[in-house]
Amino acid sequence: MFYCWMAFVSHHTQFTSAFGGLSLFRYSRSRTRTEANLQAWDAADTLLLAHLAKQSTLGRVLVLNDSSGALVCALAQSGRAEAITSAGDSWVAQRAAEENLARNGLTGVNFCSSIDLPDGPVDTLLIKLPKALRLLADQLCRYRALLHQNTQVIFAGMVKHMSAGHFTTIESLLGPTTTSLAEKKARLIFAPVALPASPLPAPVQYQYQGLPLIALANVFSGESLDIGARCLLKHFPEQLPGPRVADLGCGNGILGLWAAKKLPDARVDFYDESMMAVASAEQNAAAWGLADRCRAICGDGMALAEDETYDVILCNPPFHQQQVVGDFIARQMFHDARRCLRAGGELWVVANRHMNYHQSLKRLFGDCTTRSDDTKFVVLTSVKA
Ligand SMILES: C[S@@+](CC[C@H](N)C(=O)[O-])C[C@H]1O[C@@H](n2cnc3c(N)ncnc32)[C@H](O)[C@@H]1O
Fold first, then answer.
1. What region holds the Methyltransferase small domain (predicted)?
2. In CATH, which of 3.30.2350.10, 3.90.1150.10, 3.40.50.150, 3.40.605.10 is domain 204-383?
3. Beta carbon of 316 within 6 Å of any ligand 1 atom
């Protein structure tokens, strides 16, 4: 049985591209079977690398949205790039890439957050197509200043994730596109640097109870407040068991901001793996005049938090990490929350009722109370014994 499992895992971690073999894993703190099961690359990576192998030099390369580092590892292995920079909005993706580079004894890749601008110029821009069109538009405008008229720009993605909106966005910001043939359900899109630079799109702005909120391009819920978040806010308690609050998976920070607004002695820490999410939460805290009581931390769940720190943790958990759908991140978050609550501290969770988190929370905390239960969302609380 053990032997079979090892064979299964190694089959899913040995990546062969046009530049050679690599051992690649997705980032996982727990390395459960579910996560080990997920490949750290897809057919779009393979297709893009096969295309690049036809070129002897790539110049200075910028790679965007490389989900676990398959592209930067293969490029570092190829020796064809003068410099390689990887940028994206996911802390988890960046950590996976760093670990995979180290695992394969590779160096020479610089990392840049989704908000900062790396050094230019860029001769080859490689973009794994993000799901969010707002992020795509942001990236095309943000990095445009680094491109020159001969920069080759190549997008890679699975055909099922490509929408008309992706093509419209690229064509309105760069110029007319052409595509490769599809291979293993993946396709490349090529675009020239033909159009003049456009200004960075403004963040989404809306109000909650008269208070302004912004959300940078890759932040969950987009144009308005998430209905799950709205549901938790509706049932928000008048009293909390103490002032130390964490907003786990904070997005633009609405849950933690509301706690800080309602309870003048609350001190709130915001956690998210999206760099744009923590930046949005920070900007919103400043706009609400709460910056001195709020702190934002970018990382995987509450991995960076100390044990038994919080009186209350608020969580509207994600149901996917990049393109991978599942409840594995929520489960990891509940474990983090239990570790980081002090005895008597409370975890408040809002989720789609079909996720059935009641059972997982009851198993983990030995306690779970349903605070509200409408047709779509449920608000649950668990108290740490
Ligand atoms: C459903 S959204 C909730 C956002 C916000 N709290 C709200 O209620 O509108 C879940 C959030 O979890 C974040 N997230 C996903 N995976 C994460 C991880 N491994 N660690 C921390 N945050 C994560 C996502 O970036 C997203 O902002």
1. 213-380
2. 3.40.50.150
3. yes
